[in-house]
Hints:
The chain has 136 residues and is an all-alpha fold. It has helices at residues 2-29, 32-35, 47-71, 79-105, 110-134. The chain is globular, with a radius of gyration of 16 Å.
Amino acid sequence: xxxxxxxxxxxxxxxxxxxxxxxxxxxxxxxxxxxxxxxxxxxxxxxxxxxxxxxxxxxxxxxxxxxxxxxxxxxxxxxxxxxxxxxxxxxxxxxxxxxxxxxxxxxxxxxxxxxxxxxxxxxxxxxxxxxxxxxx
Length: 136
């Protein structure tokens, strides 16, 4: 249990920090037309549900920790190679189909969906690094 919970909580904290850093970088360094995409009212659920945003990295990290425990023997190499492979596998199985349905069902641009996809790959890769170190 310790090999599941500790890496999951550690990854959750890292992913929460990454989400703040990524948001800062998008707002600071991308053209205003790109960062303005995130200020669409459709992406703000209101004060009563805003806290759910901060819980998401932990829900994701526990799901990814379960996935890691189940398939960690499939990933070869050092912790960096295993983390990157984990991120790519997750991107192909979960992130890409999610982005496909998001783009086809929501009024969002390909730029936004591409940014979400890249963000998802980085999230899973960061979690993969942590899992490969703490639960090899």
